[in-house]
Design goal:
five-stranded parallel sheet; 402 residues; alpha/beta; 5 strands
């Protein structure tokens, strides 16, 4: 008899912890079904059920992509994750994703499951899991049916406190960088579409003159259309910079020299056009009409030009140096650097490895020969790690070309 596991949850959103449970189940069952249901105890879900289903699918694709390129991006996987992802690559049919709006036991029985699986963290889940198990057994007794109740412990201690609610709470605090490791890249990007809107509209109101009448909303939708489907220069990238900008303003004495709203407006639009020659100038041209009578026009344009790499101009003011530093900050992020590397590679699908490696080596060498960060605040925090990360990646590409 085929062993089929039904893994139920609201997955709002799907996290690394959920992914690890799926992997453990794939190592023990012939098939795993991820069942996405409505939780009656939650008044409102962050993502609709169709979006949650899609984000689970995208999460698994993201982790499979990271695994397939693990030697390049340096992303670490456990033995069970390696085994599960290898199986998923060879046989995508070993996992299915469904949604349901009935009792979990009925959904599991409907889809032919032989077991209900639940993830158990080290602390805090015992009473809830016992209650769920008792109720499910009572419901199954009424139906004269049976299901194995399989409680799978979270396999790593550092995942004990990773949950959908913890991820959402970090995002609510605007700690977008700390939230990154909790979820797959595209889940984080989807969340940023919800998180950044308020910040964008505030920056728009303070920077763009005139009668608004829906202009900020339309501008936000237009901005999302430009950014949200990119592998790296996306909404997560914007959030990364905004998080660092807020930290800089809280901790650095130089923040008084920063015109906040025009700075953030420039940051939102600095990669509006991406992947083309003179992309920054094209980004400026796309938005400059909105600032046609505004004294902030020149400032916004100058800040966007300060993100050009390699630089075509010197960064003389604190705002120019700051926008450069937050744009380059991912280079000094040891935890997320691998995701960044893979995201950059995926933004150039038309280039074969040789062509991409040539351009990437040139970028890394130019950065390593120059000053990466300009402000002492970021230089002290990130310079050493950035050089280590880039040297390691450069060595990878040099070895590949030999």
């Amino acid at each position: 008899m085929e062993k089929i596991a039904f893994y139920a949850g609201s997955f709002d959103p799907f996290t690394v912890g959920h992914f690890r449970i799926v992997c453990e189940a794939l190592c023990s069952y012939d098939k795993v079904i991820v069942g996405i249901g409505e939780n009656p105890d939650k008044k409102k879900h962050l993502f609709g059920i169709k979006d949650r289903k899609e984000l689970v699918r995208q999460s698994l694709q993201d982790f499979l992509n990271l695994w397939q390129h693990r030697r390049f991006c340096g992303y670490a996987f456990s033995v069970s994750e390696e085994k599960a992802l290898a199986r998923l690559e060879a046989d995508p049919g070993c996992l299915d994703i469904v949604s349901y709006d009935c009792l979990t036991v009925d959904a599991a029985l409907y889809y032919g499951a032989t077991a209900l699986i639940r993830g158990k963290r080290i602390v805090g889940d015992d009473a809830d899991e016992m209650y769920q198990s008792i109720i499910n057994k009572q419901l199954l007794a009424v139906r004269r049916r049976s299901l194995v109740m399989d409680l799978i412990p979270v396999p790593q201690e550092n995942l004990t406190y990773i949950s959908s609610s913890a991820f959402r709470n970090l995002c609510k605090l605007e700690e977008y960088i700390a939230a990154m490791p909790y979820v797959a890249p595209r889940v984080h990007n989807a969340m940023m579409k919800k998180c950044l809107k308020k910040t964008f509209i505030e920056a728009y109101h303070e920077t763009v003159p005139g009668y608004f009448d829906g202009q900020p909303e339309n501008a936000w939708n237009d901005l999302c259309a430009a950014y949200e489907n990119r592998p790296w220069h996306n909404l997560s990238h914007l959030a990364y910079g905004i998080n660092l900008f807020n930290i800089f303003c809280r901790l650095s004495g130089e923040h008084k020299n920063i015109p906040k709203e025009p700075f953030l407006f420039a940051w939102f639009y600095h990669d509006y056009v991406w992947g083309e020659d003179n992309a920054e100038e094209k980004s400026i041209a796309k938005i400059i009409g909105r600032l046609y009578i505004n004294q902030k026009k020149d400032l916004v344009a100058k800040l966007i030009r300060a993100t050009v790499h390699p630089p075509k101009m010197s960064r003389e003011t604190v705002p120019e140096k700051l926008i450069n530093d937050i744009d380059m900050a991912i280079l000094g992020d040891e935890l997320n650097y691998g995701r960044y590397c893979l995201g950059i590679r995926n933004e150039y699908p038309a280039l074969n490895e040789k062509a991409f490696a040539s351009g990437r080596k040139s970028f890394l060498q130019n950065c390593l020969e120059a000053e990466i960060f300009h402000l002492p605040f970021f230089k002290e925090m990130l310079e050493e790690t950035a050089r280590h990360n880039m040297q390691k990646e450069l060595q990878y590409w040099q070895n590949r070309s030999q």
